[in-house]
From TrEMBL:
Protein task: Removes the formyl group from the N-terminal Met of newly synthesized proteins. Requires at least a dipeptide for an efficient rate of reaction. N-terminal L-methionine is a prerequisite for activity but the enzyme has broad specificity at other positions.
Active site: 148
Name of the protein: Peptide deformylase
Stored CDD domains: Pep_deformylase
GO terms assigned for molecular function: metal ion binding; peptide deformylase activity
SUPFAM superfamilies: Peptide deformylase (SSF56420)
Keyword Chaperone in record: no
Annotated Fe cation binding sites: 105, 147, 151
Family: Belongs to the polypeptide deformylase family.
Amino acid sequence: MILPIVAYGDPVLRKVAVDIEPDYKDLNKLISNMKETMYNASGVGLAAPQIGKAIRLFIIDASPFAEDEDLSEKDRETLKNFNRVFINAQILEEEGDEWAFNEGCLSIPDVREDVFRQPKITIEYQDEEFKMHTETLEGLAARVFQHEYDHIEGILFTDKLSSLKKRIIKKKLDNISKGKINAEYRMRFPNIKKGK
């Protein structure tokens, strides 16, 4: 089932999400719905807060980036199979000099900006079977993870912009929260009264 994606301005996007347990009700159905929602919106990641649930769950399918000829062969190979569910994720370590990449977000349609992030991270998470994993991600895989991880920490990519950039896009962000946007997918807007 395709779920509405929560738009910028909704308080759920600012909550630090809580861990979930293996007995979380209808978890497999939720993951399946999140995947359908993400693919319908042509996204490469979707976090539970973006569908209104403040839980530490997000999904990533970065395989569309594997077609990018500008990336290294190693990066393309990694991204081709980077399709996972992350539960109760933690970043253990971030390393390297920050680098810029143009990011967007399904909760903030039509806004794209360069965001600086570190290129190498060590993470810990559980998969959908609640098996624990520890691994190191680099390059674009690390970046996509960091973007989705920020969602479960109540952080948006726009928070990482300079105050000048924030002022420039403020009107756009206000319009998104009011539903004055033509998204290609279902959305839920915080500042639209029900029944209108």
